Amino acid sequence: MKNKRFQKENLRRGIYLLPNMFTSMNLFCGFYAVIASIDGKFVAAAIAIIIAGVFDNLDGKIARATGTTSKFGIEYDSLADLISFGIAPGLMIYLWALRPLGRIGWLAAFLFMACGALRLARFNTQIETVNGDHFIGLPIPAGAGMNAVTVLIFHKLNISGSANAILLLIILYSLSFLMVSSIKYNSFKKPELFRKMNFNSLVIAILIFIFIASQPSIALFLCGSLYVLSGPVAMLKRYKKIKNKESRKIKGEKNISHRS
Fold it and tell me: Max Cα separation, the chain?
């Protein structure tokens, strides 16, 4: 009996290691991205940030699938995310493109990191009260990923980052604002999205995968841009829908008053 209980405790400890190991790999990729940026290897840094995003996505799924979610795991994940998706992309963009701007450049990089930290803190405090179908504000991995794919697409097209420092400064400020905004972003956690997939959707998914495999820089940049823009576009559609409902309601009330 004692042996069985001892084996179960060891198994439970081993299972808890799984999500935390993926979080550690996320942290490792973020730290490597910092080192690569300091060494001027910006493409390698961008790729490391994207891989960190993959590990960040996997650790949560593994924790939920194995029932090993814990307060420690949540806190450790947030600290790793701040390194991989806050400090690493901010430093990468500054050293790659914003350094000629001087103080304005590094303050923009700091703002991105600070907004990322605020985004993580808000997410942790609202995790039990907010609907899991949507994120409130742009997720920090998406903001970091957008910075990474921007470096990759510029390298693909042989465009200098420092020559377009003002444009990249605007992009960095925009991503910072979106992270701390109240704009809703799809979390893609609905199981119906995968259960209702028909044959045509599967073919489209395969074609998208082929496109990403053949032109990763362009495909990832397009996917990242669409996701970043999806939040503001959906918000404008909801606002327009509410305005139309209010206008129809006012017209209906006016028609009733005229009849009476």
Answer: 84
d(CA 237, CA 222): 21
Please give the Cα distance from 39 to 17 (Å, whole number).
Answer: 32
Structure tokens of 146? Answer: 């957008």
Helix/strand/coil for 185: strand
Q: Side chain identity at 11, as an amino acid letter?
A: L
Structural domains for the chain: 2-259 (1.20.120.1760)
pTM: 0.85
- Helix residue ranges, H only, 140-215: 140-156, 165-180, 192-195, 199-214
Sign of the Cα pseudo-torsion (132, 56, 183, 232, in order): negative
Average pLDDT, the chain: 86
Q: What is the pLDDT of residue 10?
A: 45
Residue 152 tokens read as 């990759």
Asked whether the beta carbons of 175 and 228 are under 8 A apart, the reply is yes
Structure tokens at 46: 């961008």
Q: Is pLDDT at 15 greater than 60 in this prediction?
A: no
SS3 at position 131:
coil
- Say how far apart CA 65 and CA 68 lie, in whole Å: 8
CA dihedral 106, 110, 111, 117 (to 10 degrees): 170
Q: Is the pLDDT of residue 2 over 60?
A: no
